[in-house]
Amino acid sequence: MIVEQIGGCVSFCLEAAGVFFRRGVSRREVFLQIWRVTIQSLPTTAMAGFFVGAIMTVQFTMQVQAYGALGYLGGLSTSATIRQVGPLLIAFMLSGKVGAFTAAELGTMRVTEQIDAIRCLGANPFQELILPRFIAIIISSFALLAAGLLMSVAGGALMGALFSGINLDEYLRHVPTIVTLPSIATGLLKCVVFAVVLASICTYKGYTASGGARGVGQAVVETAVATMVSLVAADWATSLIADTVIQLVLSAGGAVG
Amino acid sequence: MIEFEGLVKKFGDRTVLKGISLTIAEGEIVFILGTSGTGKSVLLKTLVGLLRADAGLIRIDGEDVTHLSEEDYLPVRRRCGMVFQHPALFDSLTVLENVAYGLMKHERLTLEEATQRARECLNMVGLLADSPDLAFEQKLPTQISYGMQKRVSLARTIAVGPKVLLFDEPTTGLDPVTTKQINFLIRDLSRTLKTTAIVVSHDMDCALEIADRIVVLDQGQIVEQGSVREILDSTVPLVVDFLEEAKARGVET
Fold first, then answer.
1. Residues sharing a CB contact under 8 Å with residue A234, sequence separation 6 or more, in sequence order
2. Model confidence over A136-191: pLDDT tens digits?
3. Which of A109, A118, A122 is opposite residue B75, by nearest beta carbon?
4. Is CATH 3.40.50.300 the right assignment for the domain spanning B2-248?
5. What is the DSSP-derived secondary structure letter of residue B220?
6. Do A119 and B102 lie within an 8 Å CB cutoff?
7. Is this prediction's ipTM beyond 0.90?
């Protein structure tokens, strides 16, 4: 069953890619979708990002205080937020908002025969519906995740300054040494991967919905579940791959040096 | 001309169409009658490639379209316009945008030309003429009645100039007055636009009123076909049942 679903989703994405290269996509429609997704989710993402940073600061405060290393709070909290927790939690939030909305929208179009109507008017639903949403969700989700991460850094710093007994300068002092370029690159890589995972699953589940209102509901639930499980798996895989690549690059650099 | 030759369609273990062979001449209005679940809608959807046949052949104007790819089927579908059982209007577009949708996709028309053509089509299905509300064309599908949605759906289909019109249960869910209007609209449009029409229905009344030929399906097979006169004289039990049911509702047979 899971293998069938993964195969179906991969085949769906390949079909979308094929249509993209054969027929292209309306830029206007992509921009409209980007605008819609971004505006729809920016306030929630910013707020979620802010509190993710705040939570990490609260957590690290307890631990670094025990070792008398409060000066490292900013660096540790920001690094953990950017590399691990931030992208994942913000992506969870986006899956509930953008993913569920897209699956419900496409699913409703499917069960009310609107997608068949597009086909019968001689148009390609991948070109008309799927690709604009797919591309827009990737671009918007990446931008939203990145914005959410910035907000999480701000949230962590603010909470640190307000409640952890550390001023902003101290909080930020070790950030550049702990939050290295590879950390930021790993965080951004995760944003890209999560955006692709979200876009693939919600468009696939919506497009293949069947069975009336119940089928649409089912598609939305399956989108939420599949996205969250896939995000966690993708998080682990991306961390592993990114860390391996970073180690290889560092050791190669060391060998050269 | 449309030809089905030994058409078979299965869903899992269930065979819905069991070797349908049927030829429909150009300009003909054919009604396909049958009880629910006999494969009438499946036959139409297979014709336009929304479903794919498991065996048999479909030819449109001599061209074998049975195994065309999705991409190659797109121009075929522009020749065969389908009106769905439910109006299937794009709910984020206005009435006018719905009708102009196909035109904007395929014809090299300016926005003004597409708008003009869409208005003509709305007039042809009696909508702009009927509606005293000048803002009608700017309404969303959810803001108009179900009967009007059906007409808009018909206008959207004829806008791209198909040679064949396919109607899947066009009067389901409509009141008797609107049902009659839609039936006459199907006949008049088919005559005016010189199109072939295939109407899937379980409504013998409409069939007797406007069909050139009636085909009766039962459990995936053709059990009777002929002109209205021949159908009235039929002794096939299902046809007799249909006729008796129509007579009970006061239809002259």
1. A190, A193, A194, A197
2. 999 999 899 889 989 998 999 998 888 888 888 888 888 888 888 888 888 899 99
3. A122
4. yes
5. T
6. no
7. no
